[in-house]
Write a structure and sequence with these properties.
5 helices, alpha+beta, seven-stranded antiparallel beta sheet, 2 domains, 7 strands, 156 residues
Amino acid sequence: MSEFVLQTSEKSYTNSEISGELLRDVVERLSRKELDFMVLEPSEPVDKSIYLQMLGSVVVETIGSFVVETRLVAEDGSFTQYSYTSADQDEVLSMFLKYWEHGELPDLDGWKDITASLSKPASVGLWARIRSLLRSKSAPAQIPLDGDVASQGMRH
């Protein structure tokens, strides 16, 4: 079975630190707007999924609403990313527990394929940048955007 890393907007946890209690606490903190996101990454893909991540109320802007996403990677390196929105805290906690405890991907029926939306310039690599910043020892005050996107915002 895979080992996992859990990353939140606040801290990264190794496999030995992850527990059902920790996952429950992180989901609850997301619902209270105390965290922005969580990403659960297996050392080996779970049914081609390289992570299960959740954006909390801060991003969704509705207390108690969650956006759960997963990315499936094909052998040729291409990927498909799926998104699911839920207000049911128990439902999303169950998804993360099954992914971590049993290596079980959620049933993707009813999930939205958002792969095409990831090719928009402002979102290209954003999650990759967030993950790399979390792994680095020092993080900038804000996440840098692509040069042309940032410069458009600076024009008067």
